[in-house]
């Protein structure tokens, strides 16, 4: 809560406390890097499937590990800047009279929406599923691409 | 409202592996999720190995120890930068000790959609024989 009084200019102290916070955050980042980063759990949204999002100059790439999934069990759609991935993984029935030693693979439904950081060209999205890895290739919208500026 | 057709899949981080020997090559190693079930004739093993191509998968069975190891070539292009990354890409490694005797010549392996299906037929002497009791 900021109490305004004619003798008090909050802006001054405001800016100072922000820069102080920023400096602390940078210090923390540096500390994390010192540990190699890898020892910390990657940040996830905790929603299946786990996703890696990368970009290059013209495109975004969304990747997810979906072993055992067939292309027709997967629904992918783009609305605005949101990519939605839904589907259901089924594990075939093994019949009767089987005795399980391990049962770690899971089946079930999933649904995830990813907000892409920039505008995309929804008409040119393509998705492929290979060796259990889904790759969605999403071209950036023309106006969202970086423009090289020539120095004369 | 609950979906009655099936349960919802939960996101789970991959399980890291402490390899039996120290690694000389860099990179993370993960333990693949498996289903192992046994029927009267064989042992079936299904392992999730997303990203592993059949050439990069090694299956080795000796002295009743089954070893699976798979290499993954990352799909990222050279110019791609991470925006966020929720899973790591790495090798897969897992070992099992089999209690049954396996007929080594009849092992079948199939890698499809990132899932390995290994059928290990039991050796003839390990197949249970049904003994019929004669009634007088």
What's the short version?
Chain A is built from 1 helix and 8 strands, in the order H-E-E-E-E-E-E-E-E. Chain A is an alpha+beta fold and 152 residues long.
Any chance you could write out the topology, listing elements then pairs?
The complex is a heterodimer of chains A (152) and B (136).
Chain A: H1 10-34, E1 51-55, E2 59-65, E3 74-79, E4 82-89, E5 99-103, E6 108-115, E7 126-130, E8 133-139
Antiparallel strand pairs in A: 1-2, 2-8, 3-4, 4-6, 7-8
Chain B: E1 15-16, E2 29-31, E3 34-38, E4 42-48, E5 52-62, E6 65-72, E7 81-85, E8 91-97, E9 108-112, E10 115-121
Parallel strand pairs in B: 2-8
Antiparallel strand pairs in B: 1-2, 3-4, 4-10, 5-6, 6-8, 9-10
Structural class of chain A: alpha+beta
Number of helices, where a helix is a run of at least 4 consecutive DSSP H or I residues of chain B: 0
Distance between the termini of chain A: 51 Å
Name of the CATH first level of the domain at 29-74 and 87-126 in chain B: Mainly Beta
Runs of chain B in which pLDDT lies below 50 for 5 or more consecutive residues are none
CATH topology of the largest domain in chain A: Immunoglobulin-like
**Spatial order of strands in the largest sheet of chain A:** 1-2-8-7
CATH topology (fold) name of the domain at 29-74 and 87-126 in chain B:
Immunoglobulin-like
What does this structure look like?
The complex is a heterodimer of chains A (152) and B (136). Chain A is an alpha+beta fold. Chain A is built from 1 helix and 8 strands. Chain A has a 4-stranded antiparallel β-sheet, with no helix packed on it. In chain A, strands 3-4-6 form a 3-stranded antiparallel β-sheet, with no helix packed on it. The longest helix of chain A is centred in the first third of the chain and has 25 residues, at 10-34. Chain B is mainly β and 136 residues long. Chain B has a domain at 29-74 and 87-126: Immunoglobulin-like (Sandwich), CATH 2.60.40. Chain B contains no helices and 10 strands. Chains A and B meet through β1, β2, β5 and β6 of A and β3, β4 and β7 of B.
